[in-house]
Amino acid sequence: MSQETAGEVVFCGATDFDTIWSGTRNEKYNDIVRPSRINVLMGKKVSLIASGPSAAHSVIVAEDGCYTFGFNKWGQLGHGDGGWPTQVRVPTRIPIREVVVGASCGKTHTWLLTNSGKIFAMGGNEHGQLGCGHKKPLKDPTLVTGIPGVERVAVGQDFSVLLSDTGTVMACGKPEYGQLGNNTTGEFFVTASKLEFQCETRPIVVEKLPSNVVDIKCGNHHTVAMTEDGRVYSWGFGGYGRLGHDSPADLLEPKELVTFSEPVRPRAGAAPGPPDSAVGITCGAACSMVIRKSGVTNFWGKTKTSGEATMYPKPIADLHGWRVRAFGSGNTSIVIAAEKSVISWGPSPTRGELGYGKGEKTSSTKPKKMDPMEGYNVAQIACPCIAPRSRACRVWRRGG
Fold it and tell me: What angle do CA 69, 56, 148 make, to 5 degrees?
């Protein structure tokens, strides 16, 4: 971990992970409405932060090891059997000797990626989402064998996706909405009235993708992949247009979003321009976003219960002229780092995760500057989500 790529972590949002998971609220724990440093990490250089839109927990990689905190009912924090509390409110180091360079968090499970291309899994495993070949939960970080050379990991609510160093995408877990990309939902009847799913407990290859995929991201039940030349593919649950194909239909296999590979429409009399392809992707619970080569940020899907969904990629008008560098999305809130500003928005109810500060409104339906973070070089954003009725914290890593 070099000084050039490491920074410090700040945090805002809810902290009563175990109670608000179920939509309740414990007044004992105060929401943090202004981005604040985490005491146990002060003075430590941090190279990675990670969470997920269906998760109530987070991973932080510092110079002295890998830390986790948040909700822990299924052992997704990897702290083992000793005590095994339902929540860990302070980032705590876990027993993994290898250097973690990637991580992703689902509703009940976590995947860690090491610098040697190995995956360590922990947490709930009811659908085989840990990829270990069985459905038993794991309370300690456990090596997923037989999958060398992994470069990226992404985790949905009850499934997991990986990208190998050969450009192959693989997935495991529950296929209910086609999120495994294997052309099936895996449904079968155990009895005349009981439906179950043929889950994949070991990662299987996602077919119908090119061999030059360089990034993958997961929402609750969908996946987005980006190729080296900036093409974008999506598959899985299609509700609210989160796949971007102008339809709510589920896709059981990857399908390209051609808007990112089509030549730019020229002005009258001019020759077609090169595609305004993708350079960055992310997924929220029910939405997706792409940063284009031109700097334009596109959005599709939905982040609030009211109003219409955006069924295909559209520019976020309020971000016109901003050069977006990093972004994240939880259940309904979005946080974006652009230049030396942080911009966030999300509908009520919120729990301080938008970071506007004490005395300010805690929600916003339009992008708004997070004044306490003005002037900081924010390098990474992680946005967990506690429950449909509640929001989680937001965690950032500032650049050095």
Answer: 75
Asked which of 23-32, 138-147, 168-177, 196-205 is least confident by mean pLDDT, the reply is: 23-32
Report DSSP letters for 236-286, one per residue: E--GGGTTSSSS---EEEEEE-GGGTSPBPPPTTPPPBPP--EEEEEE-SS
- pLDDT tens figures, 338-350: 999 999 999 887 8
Q: Which residues contact 253 (CB under 8 A, 6 or more apart)?
A: 178, 181, 182, 183, 207, 208, 235
Q: Is 25 helix (H, G, I), strand (E, B) or coil?
A: coil
The answer to whether the beta carbons of residues 34 and 374 sit under 8 Å apart is no
Q: Which residue has the tokens 């972004």?
A: 327
ω into residue 349 within 30 of 0, thus cis? yes
Q: Where are the alpha helices (DSSP H) in 146-208?
A: none
307 contact partners, CB below 8 Å, separation of at least 6: none
Task: Answer whether 25's CB lies under 8 Å from 390's CB.
Answer: yes
Among 248, 213, 253, 249, CA closest to 234 = 253
**pLDDT tens per residue across span 169-185:** 999 999 999 999 999 99
**Residues β-bridged to residue 147:** none
Q: Which residues contact 191 (CB under 8 A, 6 or more apart)?
A: none
CB 102 within 8 A of CB 153: yes
**What length is written for the chain?**
400
| Residue 248: CB atoms within 10 Å | 14
Secondary structure tally for the chain: helices H, strands E = 1, 30
Other C-beta atoms within 10 Å of 329: how many? 27
| pLDDT tens-place string over residues 262-289 | 998 777 667 788 999 999 999 999 999 9
The tokens for 267 are 């002005």
* 46: nearest Cα among 67, 61, 64: 61
Residue 208 pLDDT more than 80?
yes
